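To illustrate the input format used throughout this study, we show a single complete record. The first block contains the structure-token representation of the backbone; no residue identities are included at this stage. The design step must infer an amino acid for every position from geometry alone.
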């Protein structure tokens, strides 16, 4: 099943790319707010299994797609979680997950404009995990049972702000408006048969600048969920940005950053693609 946020309403996508409105199709059993489904995830999945997707479907406009989770209570992000990215950063592999956060106000949809915050804004394609069931002290073997699905994410980073001061300001530098696009939809795990080997790619103006696979993660998704849930509960709808492979602008010689007019494309095999235009700040 693929779920999307269409003009602020929860929809189920059909095989031909159209959408069935959940609130309408369920007769009000589930509300239109995409956030609400995660708090009733098991009940929602049972209902959706019997949904007639041939009735009442409407076309989908890219411009109307919003973040698959509009108001997560927690957003976790993992640094240096790909071996080649750690190498290009000149840093050793972490002994345990390196965790920071992105603030929820940075979330944006999978298509549209992203305003630059400065002249050192970088790209980072990331696989995003969406939690579907509260996780507390979960063992790695049970971690996937707590996942609603997966989505494409982009962890845009203002390196000037991120690296300012000692220690660096990771969360602030990664939380400007628009710096957390997630989408284009949520794919439930049955839609992702080879989730341990997904190809992540990022392109700027048609040039591929990042290409990697989730098999290169230092800490896999089960380990991340276990580690995080051992510290604080993971709640339905929470997001985990799981790290980026090599190819970021900061790691290049000379460094390269996004500029006004650039087109940023972010894609993961089997999960879809996002596209954004980089614009001047308003």
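Output of the design step:
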């Amino acid at each position: 099943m693929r779920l999307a946020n269409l003009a602020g309403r929860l929809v189920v996508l059909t095989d031909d790319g159209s959408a069935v409105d959940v609130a309408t199709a369920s007769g009000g059993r589930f509300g239109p707010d995409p956030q609400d489904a995660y708090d009733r995830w098991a009940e929602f999945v049972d209902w959706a299994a019997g949904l007639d997707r041939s009735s009442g479907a409407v076309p989908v406009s890219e411009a109307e797609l919003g973040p698959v989770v509009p108001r997560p209570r927690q957003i976790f992000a993992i640094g240096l979680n790909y071996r080649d990215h750690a190498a290009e950063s000149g840093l050793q592999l972490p002994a345990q997950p390196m965790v920071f956060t992105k603030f929820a106000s940075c979330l944006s949809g999978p298509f549209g404009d992203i305003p630059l915050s400065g002249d050192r804004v970088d790209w980072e394609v990331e696989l995003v995990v969406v939690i579907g069931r509260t996780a507390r002290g979960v063992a790695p073997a049970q971690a996937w049972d707590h996942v609603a699905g997966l989505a494409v994410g982009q962890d845009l980073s203002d390196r000037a702000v991120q690296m300012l001061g000692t220690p660096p300001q990771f969360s602030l530098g990664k939380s400007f408006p628009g710096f957390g696009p997630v989408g284009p939809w949520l794919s439930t795990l049955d839609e992702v048969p080879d989730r341990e080997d997904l190809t992540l790619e990022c392109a700027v103006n048609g040039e591929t600048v990042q290409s990697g696979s989730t098999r290169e993660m230092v800490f896999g998704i089960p380990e991340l969920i276990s580690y995080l849930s051992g510290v604080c509960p993971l709640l339905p709808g929470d997001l985990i940005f799981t790290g980026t492979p090599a190819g970021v602008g900061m790691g290049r010689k000379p460094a390269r950053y996004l500029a006004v007019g650039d087109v940023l494309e972010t894609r993961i095999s089997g999960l879809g693609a996002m596209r954004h235009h980089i614009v001047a700040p308003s």
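Structural context for interpreting the output: The helical segments are 22-25, 36-39, 41-49, 83-88, 159-162, 170-173, 221-229. The chain has two domains: 2-60, 67-279.
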